[in-house]
Write a structure and sequence with these properties.
Helix content: over 70%
CATH topology of one domain: Serine Threonine Protein Phosphatase 5, Tetratricopeptide repeat
Number of helices: 31
Low-confidence stretches: 1-64, 376-380
Shape: globular
Radius of gyration: 40 Å
Structural class: mainly alpha
CATH architecture of one domain: Alpha Horseshoe
Mean pLDDT: 81
CATH class of one domain: Mainly Alpha
Length: about 600
């Protein structure tokens, strides 16, 4: 008897029916053929091929296999799970949101919202400051991509930025801009890429990214001109131009922002930056006028801290213009509430400095007495100690120049009195915000007593402790200068190179110390016989300040050094650049004549000597 597959043999009665149909007649065989065809049709409907018919019965029938396919996820359940996780995220419950999105991905691995769930989970991790986990998850999500690829790239960049990997962040933002041409995140990505490069100190790259009219930022900003990011980008561009010392372009970019269209906070930032641009560019009169705009903008923010900062800017602007009475009036506005306590102390110290610079020692001591009264009884008073120390240091400077020491001060122990007070600040309150300035002043007192090793250490501590500022610039410069006095040429060169590379944008450093640092480098490189480096430093000096009185002395010095090292042609090239109006010109001409003699060009040498 021929047998067929029993895939649908679901009951004993069915088996019996098959056996009856298999017995006997041709009619029965015809009926079996029809049923086999029907069976084949039913199997085809379920995507299964029928077993081929055979006239040879198998030794035994294969057992039935009824393994059901896994059930399809319920779309409604999937939607509910996703919305529950998203609500947790929106409610700020990021721990629950991270857990729910992880569970969603485990339960619905084939979901169309899988990548979106990864993105939300990563953002939840980021909100909880679990940055490494977020970065790892976003990296995996990037391989899934889909319609959330731009969001994944953006948040990957943000996560790297928050971790401090600014180069990695810039790479992610650049990738978004290159691959997601229609993304709604293009303005955010363009600004964030530039911000990452700003953190890296790549000022030129920032200016290129934000200033290119055909670049991603400018294009996106034109599409969203009222967006806060468009204004932030322009402020960042101006800030980068300041770092590049292109003050004209920085001023132009800042003025393009319409103050009336900005939020109060952005308007304050614009007015403050414009003040700094003008001051750094040497436009002190315009900076003074601009300081009033900064004060108005700060008041509009309803922030006592910003208002006090603006008043401090105005007082500083008045100082730069030697408008002492106006400076005093400005700083006095910060002596009372609602100015924050640190601004009040800073204002009082500025007032003391003004009085000292004008020789008003009695007024200075009155201010200091007021400062002591303002502080709680018995508390260490770093501000008063610092100011009293500076009073003694100022008195020493007057005495050293032949001036009259103020009444009540002994001429014999001024430096000791000053150093004692500065030492109390750094010993009793090493975490004080004034400790850096106290270290700087200790450096000066040791310098005045020619105790150079102690001076170097104090300047080093000041350079380490102080924030980026004019005082920090002075500390680094004096450390390099003192190392040179100690004949530690290698460290002196490294320190002065650090100064010239970092502080060129600060007005005081740029206007009074930069040329001195460069001439030190010319001489130090000459002493170490690195003439190529000496010439580079000299070229920097010529480019930086061609009118400096130090240029001619540097040309004469390096020219003579080259002549002594038997480099007459190079020496002559430098010596001939000494200005005709310089007192050093006759000496330079004699040195030129000597270089001709070194080469055996006696006619030229005799002509030079006779002149």
């Amino acid at each position: 008897m021929a047998q067929t597959s029993r895939v649908f043999d679901e009951s004993p009665s069915a088996a019996r029916g098959w056996r009856r149909l298999g017995d006997g007649s041709a009619a029965a065989h015809g009926v079996v053929g029809i049923l086999v065809l029907l069976l084949c049709s039913n199997l085809a409907l379920y995507g299964q091929a029928p077993a081929p018919a055979t006239n040879t019965a198998p030794a035994s029938a294969a057992p039935a296999t009824n393994t059901p396919a896994p059930p399809s996820p319920d779309p409604a359940e999937e939607a509910r799970a996703f919305e529950a996780a998203r609500r947790a995220f929106q409610d700020g419950n990021h721990a629950s949101a991270e857990k729910f999105f992880l569970e969603f991905r485990q339960r619905f691995p084939q979901s169309e919202r899988f990548a979106e769930a990864m993105l939300y989970q990563a953002r939840s991790l980021l909100r909880m400051e679990r940055r490494d986990e977020a970065i790892s998850l976003l990296g995996a999500a990037g391989k899934v991509g889909g319609r959330f690829e731009d969001e994944i790239l953006y948040w990957h960049g943000e996560a790297l930025q928050q971790k401090g990997d600014h180069l990695g962040a810039a790479t992610q933002f650049a990738r978004l801009l290159a691959t997601q041409t229609n993304s709604a995140r293009r303005l955010e990505a363009a600004y964030s890429e530039a911000r990452a490069h700003f953190k890296l100190g790549a000022w030129k790259r920032v200016a290129e990214l934000l200033g290119d009219g055909a670049g991603a930022f400018q294009q996106a900003a034109r599409g969203r001109p009222a967006d806060e990011l468009a204004s932030l980008g322009r402020l960042l561009l101006a800030d980068a131009l300041v770092q590049l010392r292109d003050f004209t372009s920085a001023e132009s970019e800042t003025r393009k922002l319409d103050s009336n269209a900005l939020t109060p906070d952005l308007r304050w930032r614009k007015e403050r930056l414009l003040y700094e641009v003008l001051a750094l560019g040497g436009k002190f009169a315009e900076a003074l006028v601009q300081s009033s705009n900064a004060v108005v903008a700060a008041v509009a923010t309803v922030s006592p801290a910003l208002s006090a900062e603006a008043v401090e800017l105005q007082g500083t602007a008045c100082q730069r213009m030697n408008r002492w009475d106006e400076a005093v009036a400005a700083f006095e506005r910060n002596l009372a509430d609602p100015a924050p306590a640190p601004r009040q102390r800073a204002a009082l110290l500025q007032l003391v400095q003004i009085h000292l610079s004008r020789g008003q020692f009695q007024l200075a001591t009155q201010r200091l007495d007021a400062l002591v009264v303002r502080n709680p009884a018995g508390s260490p008073n770093d501000a008063a100690l610092l100011a009293y120390g500076e009073l003694f240091l100022r008195a020493h400077a007057i005495s050293a120049q032949g001036g009259v020491v103020p009444l009540g001060l002994s001429k014999s122990n001024l430096l000791q009195e000053a150093a004692g007070r500065f030492d109390q600040v750094v010993r009793l309150q090493p975490a004080s915000p004034l400790a850096g300035r106290a270290h700087l002043n200790l450096g000066w007192t040791s310098w005045a007593q020619e105790r150079f090793p102690e001076s170097v250490e104090s300047f080093r501590m000041a350079a380490t402790t102080l924030p980026f500022s004019e005082d920090q610039a002075v500390a680094v410069f004096k450390m390099g200068e003192t190392l040179a006095r100690m004949r530690d040429y290698t460290n002196a060169i490294l320190t002065l190179q650090d100064f010239t590379n970092r502080f060129s944008a600060l007005p005081r450093a740029a206007n009074s110390l930069m040329d001195q640092a460069l001439i030190h480098l010319v001489r130090l490189h000459s002493e170490t016989r690195n003439l190529a480096a000496a010439q580079v430093a000299l070229e920097r000096l010529l480019a930086w300040s061609p009118e400096s009185s130090l240029v001619d002395s540097s040309l004469l010095y390096l020219g003579n050094r080259l002549s002594l090292l038997d480099e007459p042609q190079q020496a002559r090239a430098l010596l001939s650049k000494v200005s005709d109006a310089s007192p050093s010109k006759p000496v330079a001409e004699l040195a030129v004549a000597r270089t001709y003699g070194q080469q055996g060009l006696w006619t030229n040498a005799i002509l030079g000597y006779s002149n």
